[in-house]
Protein: Ectonucleotide pyrophosphatase/phosphodiesterase family member 1
Organism: Sesamum indicum
Amino acid sequence: MRSGSVSILTPKEKNPMPISTKEEDERANSSSAALLSFNRDYSSSDSPPKSVTATVLFVSLVISTSVALCAAIVFGFLFFSASNSSASSVKLDSTVEASRRLAKLKSPVVLLISSDGFRFGYQFKIDTPNINRLIKNGTEAEVGLIPVFPTLTFPNHYSIVTGLYPAYHGIINNYFTDPESGDRFTMHSHEPKWWLGEPLWETVTNHGLKASTYFWPGSEVKKGSWDCPKDYCMFYNGSVPFEERVDTVLKYFDLPSDEIPSFMTLYFEDPDHQGHKVGPDDPQITEAVAGIDKMMGRLIRGLEERGVFEDVNIIMVGDHGMVGTCDKKLIFLDDLAKWIAIPKEWVQSYSPLLAIRPPPGYLSKDVVAKMNEGLKSGSVNNGEYLRVFLKEELPGRLHYSASDRIPPIIGLVDEGFTVEQKRSRRQECGGAHGYDNTFFSMRSIFIAHGPQFARGRKVPSFENVQIYNLVTTILNIQGAPNNGTTSFPQSILLPSR
């Protein structure tokens, strides 16, 4: 369009004026006189010379033809531009994708799948045709899903299903001690007192819908309207083969339509299991990723055989990433003895999240000041890779202070480093997570496929607390208050028809 505008609307470049000879000047003057004499009055007996008449007619024809041609070109240009603009508008309007109608299911279903420790980028380690199929025909967080801090399994899995940061849902670590009761939380603690907030399975049942959970932290807890119903709530057993887990979920789709759970979870321990042993770059990780892809293929085929693959909203996530650790990246608390002794009884967790609760009689701010003095002295091995904070002085983006369960002193360890109490002869390399969630190595995956998700779409990275509102929007139910944003689902989901 721009080149056309220039050729029509921009004056043509003037050619150089030739230097005329005397003979040419006389011809020109003669022609000018003839043209000027066209307006003379002639008597009835007189007639203009034939040469004059021919010249006048020829010039008039040239002028009128030129004017008509220019008008036609301009009109054609304007018409073409308007047509293109109109066609573009029609094309854009016609390509706005809306959510696809269900072919077999009567109502929306969300299947939430977790592959523990699936670091973003693992999908490129080996050909993953089934995961890639979901990506190609679905929506993916282009550079990964951002976990909450601390980037540990239980805090993140429960943030995904509640939309709350750990300080608000109560699971602030995989292991911790309640400062009031002195009770110890472990990954086998199923008492409702630990698990705050409202997880998705509870939200779903509150609305009279069915939910099922095949392993998910917190799903065994009987809380609110959720009583962990038999055949719909599996108690964790890591020895159950992955194939059996997939097949059990598939059997739900053999039920009558009104009995199919609207919300389901499915959990795999891999590749986190291997990552802790060998780190993120070992061939065992590649093998584990291939195994997860195989399970996704088994699931897809089963859904296709039942004619519901395109009806189910599959959301595949990980809870955190993984980074390599080794014996050369160690920090020992005993090395701080010159400045302050940190007994092991004060320490609730070492690494990657250092959490310290001093006993009465010690001011936390004094402990922090002395620890940081030692760490910055240059005399503590790798001391520069550990920063210690009062929890209320942690960066606000971590959202890790608004709970009494969080110890008053928190240490942030740099990527790949480990904190231990004292030196030992143990030397080993492996993998860890739990670090600051801004580290790219802690990112995981978000892959979504189904009638409510656009095909082949890439979206910016986001924190996993947004997933709760995403699921409730798909199911068209009202969720509980949470830390996600209410507008987020509109940025990910297709508009309804």
